[in-house]
Amino acid sequence: MRFRSCYIPTLKETPADAEVISHKLLVRAGLIRKITSGVYTYMPLALRALRKIETVVREEMAQAGFEELLLPMVQPGDLWKESGRWEHYGKELLRFKDRGGRDYCLGPTHEEVVTDLVRGEVRSYKQLPVRHYQIQTKFRDEIRPRFGLMRGREFIMKDGYSFDADDAGASQAYRDANDAYHRIFSRLGLRFRAVEADSGSIGGSFSHEFHVLADAGEDTIASCSACDYAANVERCELVWEGKGEVPACPALETVATPGLHSVAEVAKFLGVAASKLVKTMIFNVDGKPVAVLVRGDREVNEVKVKNLLGAESAELAAPELVEKATGAPLGFAGPCGLDIPVYADLELQGGNGWVTGANKGDAHHVNVDLARDCKVERYLDLRLAEDGDRCPRCGAPLELTRGIEVGHIFKLGTKYSHAMHCVYLDEGGKEQEMVMGCYGIGVSRVLAAAIEQNHDGNGIVFPPAIAPFASEILVLDPADETVCAKAEELEKALASLGFESLVDDRTERPGVKFKDADLLGLPMQFICGGKGLAKGVVETKNRLTGEKGTLPADQLLEGAKAFAEAVQASWDARRK
């Protein structure tokens, strides 16, 4: 493919609205263009990369026994009302009405649609299992789309669904999808980690996320330093093995803390460590106030609050609700004397003599004994994991890293089949609910995540499996027929090895071509110029390592093959 015949509108300047490196480089390299907030056009090179990702996904999903179909993007609201998600999914669901006044939505996911399909087709246990997937554009009306393709409103997703007669079959489908995902992300050349995760609005009892490890990741992953336990920090279990019995402390006292709202301010004023304070966080749980207690140097895990209390929604309460529930302004809430449910983090059982808000302005309590002075409903695992916390499996220290979620698999159980009466007749002729699973990969997000993980100061560094072209041939003297002939010979040699090439035949200065080549980040660079050919060589550059070399101009096939093997070996070493 000739550069001059491709539409590759590279930019010298970084776009002002780009926040993360993948967004900056995708725009600068001419791979995407924004049409509106969170919605992008995929330019030719981006589309080539996306198609390569899709090819790997298709091959591995087929190996896992999934068959591809294509479901409608526009979905009737009646199906979502039947499943119970029409109201509960949230404002991310883009709802609209047709000319007849009927409710519809743009699909952010397809559990309802595929369940409706299967319940209309499958009657007997003999027709199970059923495994389908699709690769399709989705839409979620994100409140704050950002980071380019990493959190857009419109995106490309692979979503798969399994229907089985029993839990054993569903578990096997889950394992097959899990294995397929490991193969997919390994083949794409990404450094990734599978972690236990919260199921969120999709639902189900069990799920794993797949994260590409990168500093720009929006998610925090807690990984054990000794065993294979790993979880999204929202899901990470924290253990406490201390004793609930603690020595008595002096009687509760109230002290004046004028204008001191924060933990740091109060701790400094009283001359105690932040860990001696108890934060009282008021949550709005399904419309009712609930108090959640954690140590002053800890943070509440909102997902755990929602899940452990079995709530549909749980979020920090607005200031008006805090004041109504506690009688105090923000910063002075405490657990003593509250008439609302109080839940405390497990580790608060192991201490005494706490400092808490006094439920009135400019005052705190000291010498608080939670068992003596407060009514705690239950002690639960309610806090976010931190570096050094103990692994719930083996007790070794946990380590926190950043990750970009690119895949999520769910064991749904009968959530949708029960709500939507998706049943089959068993061997005895009795109706049974199908057991479901669902499996997603953010195809367009994979492209962004790959760049977040693989770039340098000069531009993108594409993994070979994702690169729009395997190599770039830089023709430094496009007016020289000998140079052009050698470049064409090299292109054909690479093609015979299975490598597509982008030939930069533009009448630009060599410096411009070198900069654009590094910006585009194709794995192999070949520099074909009059000076090199006069010495009988074509120059090479490994985009990953930056290592430069040469290959004999009269042995292009053998030299290109050896160079390609060296480039792939450098990527294999990087993944390890």
Please specify the SSE layout and strand pairing:
Elements: H1 21-28, E1 32-36, E2 39-42, H2 44-63, E3 67-68, E4 74-76, H3 77-83, H4 85-88, E5 95-97, E6 103-106, H5 111-121, E7 130-139, E8 154-164, H6 167-187, E9 192-196, E10 206-213, E11 219-224, E12 230-232, E13 253-256, H7 263-270, E14 278-285, E15 288-295, H8 302-308, E16 314-316, H9 319-326, E17 342-345, E18 354-357, E19 363-368, H10 370-373, E20 378-380, E21 398-413, H11 415-419, E22 423-425, E23 431-433, E24 435-442, H12 443-453, E25 455-456, E26 459-460, E27 471-475, H13 481-496, E28 501-504, H14 510-520, E29 524-528, H15 530-534, E30 537-542, E31 548-552, H16 556-575
Parallel strand pairs: 3-7, 15-17, 17-20, 27-28, 27-29
Antiparallel strand pairs: 1-2, 4-6, 5-6, 7-8, 8-24, 9-10, 10-21, 11-12, 11-21, 13-19, 14-15, 14-16, 18-19, 21-24, 22-23, 25-26, 29-30, 30-31
Helix pairs in contact: 1-12, 2-6, 2-12, 13-16
Describe this protein's structure:
This protein is an alpha+beta fold and 576 residues long. The chain has three domains: 15-237 and 399-452, BirA Bifunctional Protein, domain 2 (2-Layer Sandwich); 253-380, YbaK protein (Alpha-Beta Complex), CATH 3.90.960.10; 469-575, Anticodon-binding domain (Rossmann fold). The chain contains 16 helices and 31 strands. The strands form eight sheets. Strands 3, 7, 8, 9, 10, 11, 12, 21 and 24 form a nine-stranded mixed beta sheet that branches. A five-stranded mixed beta sheet has the order 16-14-15-17-20. A hairpin with a 5-residue loop joins strand 5 (95-97) and strand 6 (103-106). Helix 13 crosses helix 16. The longest helix is centred in the N-terminal third of the chain and has 21 residues, at 167-187. The radius of gyration is 29 Å and the shape is globular. It starts with 20 loop residues before the first helix and ends with a helix.
